[in-house]
Amino acid sequence: MLHENLSVTSDGRLLFAGRDLRSLADKYGTALYLMDEVHIRRMCRTYVAAMKKAFGESARPLYAGKACAFKRLYRIMMEEKMGIDVVSVGEIYTAKSAGFDLADAYFHSNNKTDEDILFAMENGVGYFVIDNTEEVVAISHLAGEKGICQKILLRITPGIDPHTFEEVATGKVDSKFGSAIETGQAMEITRLALNLPHLDLAGFHCHVGSQVFDSDVFNRSARVMMEFIRSVREETGYLARELDLGGGYGVRYVESDPVYSLENCILEVGETLSAVCRELSLPMPQIRMEPGRSIVAASGLTLYTVGTVKKIPGYKNYVSVNGGMADNPRYALYRSEYTVLLPEKMKEACDFSCSVVGCCCESGDILQENVSLPSSVKRGDLLAVLTTGAYNYSMASHYNRIPNLPVVMLRDGEDYVAVRRETPEDLIRCDL
Ligand SMILES: *Cc1c(COP(=O)(O)O)cnc(C)c1O
Question: I want to staple 47 with a disulfide (CB 3.0 to 4.6 A). Which of 61, 165, 170, 431 is the partner?
């Protein structure tokens, strides 16, 4: 099947992380996010091992918490010796509450307010990844006030188009993120950072996009960044210690997505970097990568219960579930593809074409269009959307005042709640 943690029994029932879904639905209710902890840990270990092999012992993956963040997940990251990439006060607070050592946190965002910066400094966030010149000035100033020397990376735009969706491409010259090499702004911000007090420039960062399957994208950005590091050395004498290549490795959502070996891709970037370093006579920097989606996406499955099945003769069919854009806005946002199926009817032919929609008062509340389900689909059936571990829980909203779903973790035959289901009382907690 799509991922190694999915299988089908001889009587046509889907197993996720080895578990039958009906008993989990009975125990926790639907709609429900399930996460396979063993798979999350396996992905972390793949990154840690492959990066050490490719780039040496100092290399380290940073989990991009924007893909999915809650306390238990940060504790797993800590146990797996991952660093983290945080993008907001909320993520910093969550990681800290989980006991994560924030010295291993890298603080991103293209617009950090003074309050954000101070919060991060007061909580000992190790690194700031700086987006633009105003931010260098602000961080230098606030570090001076705090009497600290703040470690920073500069976010550089390498000018690479990963040919994925426009919405998730971030490495192009005209991106809202970073300072471009092509326009000279990357060199300019580097000089500024080297000249301002209270800053320790550790190196450079880039991130070219998301859902990238083409390993050449990473090879090219590694080369462009090393060439930039060489130019900086020639012009200023400064040699970068760290190079952060960002996240973005693709994940299979549907059978037609390519199969590839993450480990081989990382090893390939390692070979490219070693060759470029030799060519440019530079030492290999300490390499960071920031995987989000590829760590958690395939670890997740969302389980719903089918409600209304509406047939509009001559037009289309709708299957409604007890969730939707409030727990997974990605189809509404980007027309993201997902595999949708009835986990208890895996042996039945899928000859009923329909749109699977949610329960929000909004025509755009669609989980997936052009889905084929068994024609016996009816109220009460379980419906599963696969590969929902990334950018689902973290993008959930309270639209229509729908409480957020719980996250139930699965581990070696055990199940436990990592995030409890919200109640209507939770929804009015901040209402005065
Ligand atoms: C989104 C993002 C990531 C993670 O991307 P994935 O595609 O989830 O691996 C890493 N770094 C930065 C700066 C990002 O914006």
Answer: 61
Residues of the chain with CATH 2.40.37.10: 6-36+297-427
Ligand 1 site, CB within 6 A? 64, 66-67, 85, 108, 207, 210, 246-249, 290-294
Which atom from ligand 1 is nearest to the alpha carbon of 248?
A: 7
Q: In testing the pocket of ligand 1, which one of 47, 66, 86, 330 has its CB within 8 Å of the most ligand atoms?
A: 66
- Integer Cα distance of 145 and 142 in angstroms: 5
pLDDT by position in tens, the chain (length 432): 899 999 999 999 999 999 999 999 999 999 999 999 999 999 999 999 999 999 999 999 999 999 999 999 999 999 999 999 999 999 999 999 999 999 999 999 989 999 999 999 999 999 999 999 999 999 999 999 999 999 999 999 998 876 654 545 566 667 778 899 999 999 999 999 999 999 999 999 999 889 999 889 999 999 999 999 999 999 999 999 999 999 999 999 999 999 999 999 999 999 999 999 999 999 999 999 999 999 999 999 999 999 999 999 999 999 999 999 999 999 999 999 999 999 999 999 999 999 999 999 999 999 999 999 999 999 999 999 999 999 999 999 999 999 999 999 999 999 999 999 999 999 999 999
Residue 14: strand pairing partners: 8
Among 131, 251, 290, 394, which residue has the most ligand 1 atoms within 8 Å of its CB, making it the best to mutate? 290
CATH topology of domain 6-36+297-427: Lyase, Ornithine Decarboxylase; Chain A, domain 1 (2.40.37)
pTM (two decimals)? 0.96
d(CA 417, CA 23): 15
Q: Which of 149, 265, 360, 361 is catalytic?
A: 361
Which residue intervals of the chain bear CATH 3.20.20.10?
108-291
Which of 31, 120, 36, 48 shows the shortest CA–CA distance to 82? 48
Q: Which atom of ligand 1 is found nearest the CA of 293? A: 8
CATH top-level class for 108-291? alpha beta
